[in-house]
Amino acid sequence: MSNKKRLFILLLTVPLLVFAELSVKEVATKFEAEQKVLFVPIAVGGITIIIPAGSGLPADPGEEGNVNIEGIDSDNDGIRDDVERHISLRFKNKPKARAYSYVIAQKYQKLIENPSMSLAQQQGLIVDISEASDCVDKEVVNGSGFTMPYVLNTYARSLAYVRGLKKLKGTILPKNRECR
User: Which residues lie below 8 Å from residue 83, measured CB to CB, with a gap of 6+?
Assistant: First the structure.
């Protein structure tokens, strides 16, 4: 029998999920469940201790993330890495607020990246943003105002958002569903 010690590094993650036709709550729940954490088990005598060894956050893209509207989304979840980092750090101990903020960020990003989407698609995104904002505000006072400035952090992104909203001029959106 050999007494060789082995070090194992585990990366726990959930594969990219498709969010077609899911409610805001369902999307937020999936984001909440998707958080990546790196663990390192350390054996001491007959006891194994498992310690978190990473945040699971994407790397900070720096100025490269502001070169274009799309930015950098290394994990392909529809949320730019810089925005994901800000949300995760701001709502570190508030998983529901973090998950609903991810939904807000994802919907804003979709809105600014797709200027030719139909009016119905835009309305759906705005309704989802509004519903997720209500849900964040139930978790954290004024929490919904946190995400938008990070998503629209460049002139090009802000302009794309304003241009996208022009289609909605005069449109009455349906009332938000209750946050569950």
Answer: 71, 105, 109, 147, 150, 151
Q: Which two tokens stand for residue 180?
A: 């569950």
Buried b (16+ CB within 10 A) or exposed e, 112-146: bbeeeeeeeebbbbbbbbbbbbbbbbebbeebbeb
pTM of the model: 0.71
Query: Of 164, 179, 154, 167, which is closest to residue 80 (Cα–Cα)?
Result: 154
Average pLDDT of adjacent 10-residue blocks, the chain of 180 residues: 49 37 57 55 73 69 92 91 91 88 94 89 88 89 88 94 81 66
Give the E-state strand segments of the chain in sequence order: 10-12, 37-44, 47-54
Radius of gyration for the alpha carbons in the chain, expressed in angstroms and rounded: 19
CA distance 136 to 108: 15
Two tokens at 157? Answer: 């992104």
